[in-house]
Amino acid sequence: MAEFTHFKEVPAFEDICLTPADIQIRRITLKDLWLSLRQGYEDFNAKPSSIPLMIPLMILFYSLFALLFTLFAFGEELRYLAFPIVGGFTFIGPLAAMVFFEISRRRERGQSLRWRSAFRFIHTSSFAPILAMSILMMVLYIAWFYMAELIFFGTFGDTMPASVADFVVQLFSTRHGGALIFYGNFVGALFAFAAMAMSVIAFPLALDKPVTSITVITISVKAFISNVYVLGVWGFVVVVLLAVGSALFLIGLSITLPILGHVTWHLYRKIIVA
Q1: How far is CA 257 from each of CA 8, 23, 46, 251, rounded to the nearest angstrom?
Q2: At what angle do helices 228-250 and 54-75 cross, to 10 degrees?
Q3: In a designed cystine with 141, which of 9, 91, 251, 257 is the match (CB 3.0 to 4.6 A)?
Q4: 171 pLDDT exceeds 50?
Q5: SS3 for 272?
Q6: Closest to 239 measured CA to CA, from 193, 173, 186, 183
């Protein structure tokens, strides 16, 4: 007699994909932010012995990427772009923090923390929106890079500072230096707010739920608008921690980047209704 094997039908992605209307957003307070900071630090301190190789590899990649770009700027007489280059890493920081989102998620669920498990999202439906968001953040980063160059030449003209010291002196003692500080920080703030609004919870949401890139951006912007004060404070914390982490040739990122990743995950969990 012939035997028939019955396979369980796997639902198509479009059948389980969530829309913006399916996802509810909470309003959070500064108390929730401080709690997320504490939880993120606890995740960092957990230091599971099963992932000894994963964290150094991720930190090495991010730190070398930042360091090489910075050294390139000085080597090619582009010292005036050193600050925009380093500052722009906030746009691609969430991509580097993806592994830490997954670690926090698995620790929250009581699952194993083997380092290979942290990269499992690459083989799931989460990868497409994460890749799309990564490309968008890189486009923003490149746009900011070129805008910073336009602002510099628009204020300093074709005259290049003779040295780093000369550049710093002109920056704080001349009219065109003051204009560079004002316009550079103003435009940079616009880019930073745009990047934060589109990505603040987009990456964790893409990792956690079946969604499209349009949905994660829509929900992230809505969440940012609904919690603009608290997330604005969080943005300031991110800038401060990245500035501290960028000291000593960016070595401090080995501590600040994992903490930021873990905290971002816990903020996401408080903002989005499970």
Answers
A1: 41, 28, 15, 10
A2: 70
A3: 91
A4: yes
A5: strand
A6: 193
Of the candidates 180, 159, 158, 160, the residue with the CA atom closest to the CA atom of residue 171: 180
pLDDT tens per residue, range 38-47: 999 888 887 5
Of 224, 229, 236, 230, the residue nearest 196 (C-alpha): 224
Q: Around Cβ 14, how many Cβ atoms within 10 Å?
A: 8
Q: What is each CA distance from 57 to 61, 161, 230, in whole angstroms? A: 6, 37, 32
Over 184-203, what HEC string results? HHHHHHHHHHHHHHHHCCHH
The pTM for the full model equals: 0.78
Q: Which residue reads 């780093």 in tokens?
A: 164
Q: Name the CA dihedral angle for 108, 219, 137, 239, rounded to a multiple of 10 degrees.
A: -70
For 231-235, what is the mean pLDDT? 92
267 with 201: CB under 8 angstroms? yes
Q: Give the model confidence (pLDDT) of 9-58 as tens digits.
A: 555 555 467 888 889 999 999 999 999 999 998 888 875 544 554 555 55
> 247 - beta bridge partners?
none
Angle at 125 between CA 101 and CA 42, to 5 degrees: 10
Segment 192-221 shows an average pLDDT of: 91
Residue 166 confidence (pLDDT) above 90? no
Q: What is the pLDDT of residue 69?
A: 62
Radius of gyration, alpha carbons of the chain: 21
